[in-house]
Target: Glutamyl-Q tRNA(Asp) synthetase
Amino acid sequence: MKPRGRFAPSPTGPLHEGSLVAALASWLDARAQGGQWLVRIEDVDTPRCVPGAAEHILQQLARCGLHPDEPPLWQSTRHEAYAQALAQLVQSGLAYPCSCSRQDIARALAAMGLEHQRHGERVYPGTCRQGLHGGEARAWRLRTDLHPALAKPLTWHDRRLGAQTQCVSTAVGDFVLKRADGLWAYQLAVVVDDAAQGITHVVRGEDLADNTARQMGLQQCLGLPTPRYLHTPLVLAADGHKLSKQNGAAELDLADPLAALQRAGAALGLPPHPSTAGADSLADWLAWAVRAWANLYVRP
Model:
């Protein structure tokens, strides 16, 4: 089976310099292994999606010479697949309905003497594991105390960051599979879609590294294969925070696509092009970058 990688943007706005870094890394990784590269439009969070943004992102990728090997997969067409996965988890006793609001969770944690740290994970205390605590079901959660992949420390190797470990049950708690607003949660959608697309290698930004243990545990709960993971360096804004659409990152400047790719390559740690005059064309630079990536991350 050929290696298969993917780039999975959310259409909440155009690509910026940070998202090009993630797109380029996933494309280089697939090409360096003689594999296929796919694009998945993660538009499951419909309230945040901007009309026309997905088409614009695909045009931006094409201008950079990054063409998927198959038509893009749109998460908004995948509701039935997510529902089937949730039903499987419910049937196996690993998912349950939850009536807790954020305020309920905060009060429960406070009663346990656990103070929530800003930007930290709010660990769900399992309030509704044995039945709804009160009111109607708002969301569906995965029980993390039953399956060994979630209840015990999970260890894996990140191809850039090295050895990683996390116990999901204690670090995260029972996480959401279907949100209170009826939308599918990222963790469930990405696991189901990676399996459906046959993804063998996930290359994405380092800000998503903390999701890996949840996704690997969920893969095991659903009997799905686990890809290999590589998390790339983040592109930071002037204030030191991650460059993102939510922080108002400027749209990627593609007046010179080659220059944009060269900046992305430098952010990924690729060495300068060996020619003193630089690459002759976009295709020339991409071909060289594939070889450079292989030297960094692809073992013979």
User: Anything to note?
Assistant: The radius of gyration is 20 Å. The chain has ten helices and ten strands.
